[in-house]
Design goal:
Chain B: Its main location: membrane. Chain B: Belongs to the binding-protein-dependent transport system permease family. CysTW subfamily. The complex is a heterodimer of chains A (370) and B (269). Helix content of chain A is 24%, strand content 31%. Chain A has 370 residues and is of the alpha+beta class. Chain A has a 6-stranded mixed β-sheet with strand order 6-7-8-3-9-10, sandwiched between helices. In chain A, strands 16-20-17-18-19 form a 5-stranded antiparallel β-sheet, with no helix packed on it. In chain A, strands 2-1-4-5 form a 4-stranded antiparallel β-sheet, with helices on one face. The radius of gyration of chain A is 25 Å and the shape is elongated. The termini of chain A are far apart. In chain B, helix 3 runs parallel beside helix 6. Chain B is mostly helical. Chains A and B meet through strand 6 and helix 3 of A and helix 7, helix 8 and helix 11 of B.
């Protein structure tokens, strides 16, 4: 007999079956102008929390729908668990989806919604009831089982949608921006909960979001998508700290990007002035961008006597509790700086402040062209 | 701002309109319970005209025809119209707006034109092949034809009110095409189906003109009987039939309306 989810949870050493996913040369266009996916190659490991991150229209939802079987690629091969499923219809794939709108059936009770997938798979009533109850217990929905969908709040619907997908124990769980309709507090709570569930079940999760913070918090690996292509595929830390190109850098929230106008032997010319190069600077070239992370900018007395020292004017300053946030102006360039709160003075607008950036904190990002 | 006197006269107008609409019906119902054969003087309450109806074989036969026609045509129209409504919904992205015009056409076409064209068509077919000679069969065909657009539009608007992702969710949750129809589509549009059935039923029971042109000698419905009977004058018997029809149509219309309304409650989020 198949092990129930709660049994699996009770015994965390038990590894559930999980499936890897491979995409090869997947292309999808809805018309000549609207190319959603432009040749995607991707391998998602079994048991991984994998996130597809990108702005709206980047193709992330199309990719998810292709995994679910709800859309068919124009070209390419999709394999799940080593089996080619490109032509397998959605109702024959061991893949379940948590939809953005939750897509709960209004004509069914909560219990029948959660049990829908099991019923369609031909699981008998007693077994179905047992598994639905078990899942409801696990996801803390038991008191709601007899309710109708329209009587529930957004957070409750979200949990039911999750329970309905999880109870089928699919090889892969797909989540299409499942938290985007919830308020910030609930979202944070469910992010943690989703991550916990994924770790404990060891199921392969493919999560779609446009929120880079959410992606970083939850994922084992992130694929950043734009214009139907994967821009970068790596761990959250690598994607944030070593963005592969200017698009990824901007999308991950980096704002301090300076174009390299000219590269000299040991220095770079940029809009704020010359910068001393880090020791391993051989890959910095004309037309690339230099990325300065706000938290690596030293301000005030700390900056004196350091290399890469500039005079900045404070445009705006914000007290954020654990750190201070500054909008600075150097020459004609706006920079953002964070300095962690260690009891030092908070500079005010129009203050002239010396700043410095350690050469080893400078990073290169390939320009938009590259 | 509306002045109090204007408000009063508007309220007055409302009651005048209501009286204009419902007084004639009320008179018909009242006189159906008259104990004497008069349409001017009400003597006392009696059920004699209803008893008389019961004994009149011709009336009972017409009532039977009316009911058989209404039920068969409504069921058929609900089945075909639902498929049509579903088709319109599934292909709504293809801009089939112009098709709606074709669907509306039978609704806006004058009954008499519709009736005559049907009759001509059936007569021609009948003279060529021997099929479709006037009778209950041809009446069912005509009724189904004019009921379909109403059903299709009710069902279509119900589909439009559903979250389109539900179709994806059903597929995602292992429902085969047949299971989707049985466990998702039909239950989701059930209020629309009930509503469409009773609306079709009402339209069919009501109809005189189209039935008149497509009926055969042995298939006259209640309205056709009444039309024949009133040439000899309005009898209290006619009042009784009319009252029963008012009751039947009102019940069907209320059921139809109740189910149209209920879509708001469970489709809402």
């Amino acid at each position: 007999m198949k092990r129930g989810i709660t049994e699996t949870l009770a015994n965390e050493s038990t590894a559930r079956k999980a499936s890897s996913i491979t995409l090869e040369g997947v292309e999808k266009s809805f018309s000549r102008e609207a190319i959603a996916l432009d040749g995607v190659d991707l391998t998602i490991k079994a048991g991984e929390f994998f996130t597809l991150l990108g702005p709206s229209g980047c193709g992330k939802t199309t990719l998810l729908r292709i995994l679910a079987g709800l859309d068919t690629p124009n070209a390419g091969v999709v394999s799940i668990g080593g089996v080619d499923v490109t032509a397998v219809p959605p109702h024959k794939r061991s893949v379940n989806t948590v939809f953005q709108s939750y897509a709960l059936f209004p004509h069914l009770s909560v219990e029948d919604n959660i049990g829908f997938g099991l019923k369609m798979q031909g699981v008998d009533k007693a077994e179905r009831t047992r598994r639905v109850r078990e899942m409801a217990e696990f996801i803390k929905l038991s008191p709601l089982l007899s309710r109708r969908i329209h009587q529930l709040s957004g957070g409750q619907r979200q949990r039911i949608a999750l329970a309905r997908a999880l109870v089928c124990e699919p090889d892969v769980l797909l989540l299409d921006e499942p938290l985007s309709a919830l308020d910030a507090g609930l979202r944070g709570q469910l992010q943690v909960e989703l991550q916990r569930i994924q770790r404990r079940l060891g199921m392969t999760f493919v999560f779609v979001t446009h929120d880079q913070q959410e992606a970083m918090v939850m994922s084992d690996r992130i694929a950043v998508l734009n214009d139907g292509k994967i821009q970068q595929l790596d761990t959250p830390r690598a994607v944030f700290e070593r963005p592969a190109n200017a698009f990824v850098a901007r999308f991950m929230g980096h704002s301090n990007l300076l174009e390299i106008k000219r590269r000299g032997a040991d220095r770079l010319d940029t809009a704020i002035g010359p910068l001393t190069l880090p020791a391993d600077a051989e890959h910095m070239n004309d037309g690339d961008l230099v990325l300065i992370r706000p938290e690596t900018i030293e301000l005030g007395d700390d900056a004196l006597g350091q290399p890469n020292r500039f005079d900045a004017t404070v445009v705006e300053s914000f007290y954020r509790g654990s750190h201070f946030e500054y909008r600075l102006q150097v020459e004609d360039v706006a920079l953002t700086a964070f300095s962690s709160n260690q009891g030092q003075k908070l500079f005010a607008a129009d203050d002239r402040v010396p700043i410095s950036i350690s050469p080893s904190d400078l990073m290169t990002v390939r320009g938009e062209g590259g | 701002m509306t002045s109090p006197s204007l408000k009063r006269s508007l309220a007055c107008l409302w009651w005048v309109l209501m009286a204009f609409l419902y007084l004639p019906l009320a008179v018909v119902v009242l006189f159906s319970f008259n104990s004497i054969n008069s349409s001017a003087l009400f003597e006392s309450f009696s059920l004699r005209w209803y008893e008389r109806l019961w004994g009149n074989e011709q009336i009972m036969a017409s009532l039977g025809h009316s009911l058989v026609l209404a039920i068969i045509s409504s069921v058929t129209a609900v089945v075909i119209g639902t498929l049509m409504g579903y088709g319109l919904y599934r292909h709504r992205a293809r801009r089939l707006g112009w098709l709606i015009v074709l669907i509306y056409l039978p609704i806006v076409m004058p009954d008499i034109v519709f009736g005559i064209s049907n009759m001509t068509f059936f007569v021609r077919i009948s003279s060529l092949t021997g099929w479709l000679s006037p009778g209950l069969g041809t009446m069912v065909l005509s009724h189904v034809t004019f009921q379909i657009p109403f059903v299709a539009l009710i069902v279509y608007s119900r589909f439009v009110g559903l979250d389109a992702t539900l179709f994806d969710a059903a597929k995602d949750l292992y429902a085969s095409p047949f299971d989707r129809a049985r466990h998702f589509i039909v239950p989701s549009i059930k209020p629309a189906l009930v509503s469409a059935f009773f609306l079709s039923f009402t339209l069919s029971i009501d109809d005189f003109v189209i039935s008149f042109f497509t009926a055969g000698p042995e298939s006259s419905t209640l309205p056709i009987y009444i039309w024949g009977a009133i040439r000899k004058g309005v009898t209290p018997e006619i009042n009784a039939i009319a009252s029963l029809m008012i009751a039947a149509v009102a019940v069907a219309a209320v059921i139809s309306l109740a189910f149209t309304r209920s879509k708001g409650s469970d489709a809402s989020r």
